[in-house]
Amino acid sequence: MTVSMTGFGHAQSQYKDGRIIVEIKSVNHRFCDIQFRMPRQLMMLEEQLQTLVRKKVARGKVDVFISLEGISPSTKRTSVDRELLHHYLDEADQLEQYNLFDPRLSLQEFLFHPDIVTVEEETKMAQDCMDEIKAAVQLAVDQLFEMRLAEGKKLFEDIIQRIDMIRGLTANIERQAPKVVDYYMNRLHQRIAELLDGRYELEQERVLTETAVFADKINVEEEITRMYAHCDQFISIMEDRGAKGRKLDFLVQEMNREANTIGAKANDATLSHLVVEVKSELEKIKEQVQNIE
Known about the structure:
CATH class of the largest domain: Mainly Alpha
Strand content: 15-25%
CATH architecture of the largest domain: Up-down Bundle
Largest sheet: 4 strands, mixed
Number of helices: 9
Family: Belongs to the YicC/YloC family.
Shape: elongated
GO molecular function: hydrolase activity; RNA endonuclease activity
CATH topology of the largest domain: Four Helix Bundle (Hemerythrin (Met), subunit A)
Helix content: 55-70%
Radius of gyration: 37 Å
Protein name: TIGR00255 family protein
Pfam families: YicC-like_C (PF08340), YicC-like_N (PF03755)
Number of domains: 3
Cofactor: a divalent metal cation
Structural class: alpha+beta
């Protein structure tokens, strides 16, 4: 099962006369990074909501937006420091005796003093509607996962098709490579004969040794074998469950390394063209792999 890191989910649930609205979006990321955007009074639920999201998301940058429509996230309660108020009033009485205080000042003006009256917010609502919030987040996460799964299926089909193309190109390289070796061996043998110009008798054993060494340098059988193995491993990983994006990214790098080695060893126009095609497909696969969980 292949899962993309790109997706979107939306859900809502009723609470009393209002609605809880949840939107989740995710994009590719090296790790699992989940960020919540919600009223401050709901932050006490973040850890529980993180757990819900992580059950369905192993990798990617995920933004969760929670908004309340027609719901007050908190209620306010006032508290009066009566002792401090009485102290101020006593002081005011004393000042009035010395004509240092305007007796027209009312009690209301004292109550505006921030130290006398404080406003506290009660966040009991977060606990009261916790089930509704969790339900909405769960629905949004499920929708996100389904979208990521659908996108992952498309990525799977596209990548498998490209791996098959690379396998076919590797088969063409395998057929062409021996011809290149034979060509260069014959050319080397001919070149040696031209240099000696019949003045010296060729030591066949020495010539065979030198040509064998040269043939080994341009031989790409090992690289071809590893390329086939990488293709098989790639498909095997793609069919596995769980996060696999990093493994596939590493494998693409290994396949690129084999292709570069083949191109460097076999200095042949036909092989070079085939190698370019292989690398082109690998580049497209690499772009797709960057979005796999």
